[in-house]
Predict the structure.
Amino acid sequence: KMPSFQTPPHFLSLLSDGTSKSELTRRDAQYETEAVLEHLFYHDNVAPFICGRMIQRFGISNPSPRYVKVCVDAFRSGSYESGSIEFGSGRYGCLEALISSIVLDREATDPAASFDSSFGSIREPLLRYIQLFRSMEYKSSFPVSSKIDSSFPGDFQIRLANLPPKIGQGPHDHPSIFSFFLPAYIPGSGPLATSMLHSPESLMLTGPNTLQLLSGMHSLIKFGLSDCDGGFGLNPNVGSCRSSRGSYSGRLYYEPDGSSLLEKARDLSLVLAAGRVNEMNLSKIVSACSAEPDVAQLICLQQLVVSTAEFHTNTETTPIMRENNEKRKVDRESLRSNLAYKAIIVLDLKGGADSFNLLAPLTCAPIDVYENYRSIRGKTADEEGVGMPRSRLLEISANADQPCESFGVHENLPILKELYEKGEATFIANAGLLLKPTNNDSHRIDTPVNLFSHNDMSHEMKKEDVRNQHTGTGVAGRIATALTEAGIISESISVDGQQVMFSTAGRGPPQVTIGEDGLPDFNEGEESIPNEVLLSLNGPVTPSSGQFAHTWSTNMNEAISQYEKLKILIDGAVSTEIFPTTRISAQLELVTKLMQSHQLRGAQRDIFYVSQPRYDTHQNVDERLVDNFSELNGALEAFVAETKVLGLYKSMVLLQFSEFGRTLTPNTSSGTDHAWGGNYFLIGGALNGGKVLGHYPAEFERSESNKITLTRGRLVPTTPFDAVWMGTSEWFGVPSSQMEYVLPMHKNFPAGTLFSEEDLFRSEEVLPVSGHFQ
């Protein structure tokens, strides 16, 4: 075992004449690389980290500490014993021992474990789809009457078309280095939220993903592998979906055992769901399918079995004998009818935006902040560094309490300069996540989070509750909860997957998830199962039911309900502006369609989440920002113009944030790395804008007089993001009595640090909304 080093070992010579020592340098580089890898491989955290992740991937989202320890011991010793059989090589890190300890442990094999409602997991969507292939005996084959000969390329027959946007997952197509889901993710509502149980796969359990996965499986069952009715295959052009020839490149051939429909349904339950589908649901399945023609009964049985919670999870449910199918209705009499509509659009620049190039110092005295800025950003006699030259900055005036007379907005964001000069944009300087005021001496104690980590900082910025005083909630979820409890009908809508920001721990309205392309077609074909049958199979369950199965059923019910309510509104709304063909533009265009339908939805307050990725600029920060900001500028221009036409511009505020800022000093790849404090902006017609709030730093080098700079120009925030949420929440109508619930950390800051509604907004009459529907 490698010895422990306080400082990593260094073998490379720093001196070389380029000739005699070149071979030694190559050798020493190999030594140093090997030493670093050994150091990492034997780190104490490796075994528990790998074991926790691997157990989750084998179907147990919340393993007990005992289970994890058994796996850790097997990994470290290289050996695992089950009965009289020993597995492993006896060497540290043996995967045979690790896997054996996971799949043979009593927590994985004892049937009694399934009676614990917290046991199990929601299965990965791709695995569910592949299981349908395997269990129902899929075979590649074209219709008999087709004219395709045997020379047709075989690989075409098993291609799956663009799965990630449809189901949230695809083979070899991770959205980021962090895979498809977060290991510690807890859903924002439902039984798992109440119990605070991890469910990584729930991160992909959005309404669109749920409906499209069901559509893909139903299509495979009905038509074979094709693109018919939302299928995941490619059209082989050998016939129409509903012709006698069919249009598929392969189909399912399984024939269930049994002479009666009930026996066949039980066989399908056994093969597809390990026999977990309960008798009440089996009876419903048989009843629904018995009315079908004989040739369609098997198709019906398969469709309904794969629509049960027992197929989508490895747990089971016990239905309540008496179902209450009444949907929750908005009490229109309780609405505060004189309340003007308002919306918050949260724009997340994902990856950690380099925001000191978004808003840079320009004209400053008596301290030349611009020269300090260019110096820390790497400008020398020979190098330009990564700072913005004056010629590439769009000048805006500054208010008197800033160290500069004027600042510069990045040249590719002219919309921000235009809105700022109209008083419709505000910048927030050096802001970020804070539990309480801190400095470079005490920041780690004062801010007990994993600073500079994408996952942790993004999670915490969306929670705004470092001490977890309101476990299982996010800041926008708490706002929606407070408004709902005050009699103001609110909705939380994400256009980019499930968001912890909207979590309410079951206390407030559930979040709605919609894809940037709107809602997919669902269950609209001639052979489709009625939605009422699908809802019946996923109805109310007893408290003893598996919490993962309960979560799936709840999500599917909400997805279908949202689909029925929103699709016609989204598809019927018309944009007057032409939005650019980018993802962020598509998201913002969809937001405008949802905003103009607020009266039809019965919503008085909406909170939306949209995002733009690719801000993790470890390389070529300048080129990346030019591309990203150009794309963002086009989207914001169209969004502002559209909301003005709709009469919504003075009813909304767009609030931009990012998980953290970036280092002011560049790295060796002309990029910047993870930091903390950054600059952010708000735009909207109701803003009292044209100001830079917060405290823009005048110095960027660490010194006795400068207590907010860490290594490499990482800035400690001087303005908490609570300050932005404080004034925005007041404008949005959150009662002052609820502010401690909404922002549990705000009381840790002096009053002058926080922004009030008057600081951020001006009082103006809100114009009536003029929606455009076809």
